[in-house]
TrEMBL record:
Keyword Cell cycle (UniProt): no
Keywords for the protein's UniProt record, in alphabetical order: Transferase
Source taxonomy: Bacteria, Pseudomonadati, Pseudomonadota, Alphaproteobacteria, Acetobacterales
Protein name, per record: CoA transferase
TM region(s), chain numbering: none
Organism: Roseomonas populi
A Pfam family: CoA_transf_3
GO molecular function: transferase activity
Keyword Transferase: yes
């Protein structure tokens, strides 16, 4: 009698293109955790090593849900947390053991801190020549400001970003988004991906020097060329564009609507949509350069018209005429928008302490290859035991000894 066929085991969910890459994350606050969160989103295994006590400083940032900080939850999804005191010789030895098992190490201490611990790039890359060591700092590893402390607002001020943000004629204003920190995180991730690619050829790792300063300054883009060309500082313009007219947020009867005519062919269409065809027919307004010169005439005229209808009415009219536009949404409305849901930019996960929580989704998709669901951010020290057991072969008595002496912390339930 033939044996019944066994069902084939279900294939493991695809983690992403970085599946098999292991990252040791020594970062805290924003820039570094954002870098490693991107790598986790792409499928890497990220081991977040935190100091004893409170762990990553952002774990203490209110408000909280289930005892967990909103700030930490927003930057650490999908990671595993272990708590190790790197100032203790046995803690430093744990780090060295882990370095032998990982592909990438990311830290965002002030330059020199890791060297003083005997755990700098040169020492660790000698243990693992394939190690990609990414140092993220405020001002970089070299230069006259390299040792200076820095936070997002410092970066925005030093790179000229604050000087171009705000209303016309107003005081400089920090961007609402922490663009200084985020630029360090984004460019740190790009650099790591580039170094991983290079390692396929060379077989060797590389030291990466990523700074908030360099990353944010690079985002000046065409504004830097404007300064080079004119010899003058670009000034704050609110939501307007220094060269493109109209390109601004205009008042509606119940909110604001963005209108963006970045090409000349949109101008006559916009005038028809607004019911001012005479402006569209004016040969003195046909080009971007002409409209820029007559900005003071055009923008108040458009604002007078847009005030007469609601945002929803203008959305319908502008869509009918194929004009680039958008309502100015609050964060809650943006997160609740049908497109955000359709793009899986808002997902729900089950956190071990906070219960079901909503989080931002992955910013990059891979059509035709569905990734495994996102995992929640870790509790402090949640994975210490299992990482030491699985990766370093520590037995329970050794783990207990380290825990009792405060070298490690194993989290609730361990």
């Amino acid at each position: 009698m033939p044996r019944p066929e066994r069902a084939a085991p279900a294939a493991a969910p695809w983690k992403g293109p970085l599946a098999g890459v292991r990252v040791l994350d020594l970062t805290r606050v924003l820039a570094g955790p954002l870098t490693t969160q991107f790598l986790s989103d792409l499928g890497a295994e990220v081991l977040k090593l935190e100091p004893p006590g409170k762990g990553d400083e952002t774990r203490g940032f209110a408000p909280f849900v289930g005892g967990e900080s909103h700030y930490f939850l927003g930057l650490n999804r999908g990671k595993r947390s272990l708590v190790v005191d790197l100032r203790d010789p046995e803690g430093a030895e744990i780090l060295r053991g882990l370095v032998a098992t990982v592909d990438v190490l990311v830290e965002n201490f002030r330059p020199g801190v890791m060297n003083r611990l005997g755990l700098g790039a040169e020492a660790l890359m000698a243990l693992n020549p394939r190690l990609i060591y990414c140092a993220i700092s405020g001002f970089g590893l070299t230069g006259p400001l390299s040792g200076m402390p820095s936070f997002d607002i410092v970066t925005q001020a030093m790179t000229g970003v604050m000087s171009v943000n705000g209303e016309k004629g107003g005081a400089p204003v920090k961007l609402g988004l922490p663009i200084g920190d985020m630029s360090g995180g984004i460019f740190g991730a790009i650099a790591i991906l580039s170094a991983l690619h290079e390692r396929h050829t060379t077989g060797r790792g590389r030291l990466i020097d990523a700074s908030l300063y360099d990353g944010t300054m690079s985002l000046l883009g065409y504004l830097s060329q404007l300064a080079f060309l004119t010899g003058q500082d670009p000034r704050p313009m609110g939501s307007a564009h220094p060269s493109v007219v109209p390109y601004d947020a205009f008042p509606a009867s119940d909110g604001a609507i963005v209108i963006a005519c970045l090409a000349d062919h949109f101008w006559p269409r916009l005038c028809t949509a607004l019911g001012c065809d005479e402006l569209g027919a004016d040969p003195g307004l046909a080009t971007m350069a002409q409209r820029r010169e007559r900005r003071a005439e055009i923008e108040p005229r458009i604002a007078t018209i847009t005030r007469t209808r609601t945002v929803a009415e203008w959305q319908r009219v502008l869509q009918e005429h194929d004009i680039p536009h958008a309502p100015v949404l609050g964060v809650q409305d943006a997160l609740a928008h049908p497109h955000a849901r359709a793009r899986e930019m808002v997902v729900e996960v089950e956190h071990p302490r906070a219960g079901p929580i909503r989080m931002l989704g992955r910013p990059v998709k891979f059509p035709g290859a569905e990734q495994a669901p996102l995992e929640p951010p870790p509790c402090l020290g949640e994975h210490t035991n299992e990482v030491l057991r699985e990766m370093l072969g520590y037995d329970e008595s050794r783990i207990a000894s380290l825990r009792n002496r405060g070298v490690i912390h194993c989290g609730a339930g361990e």
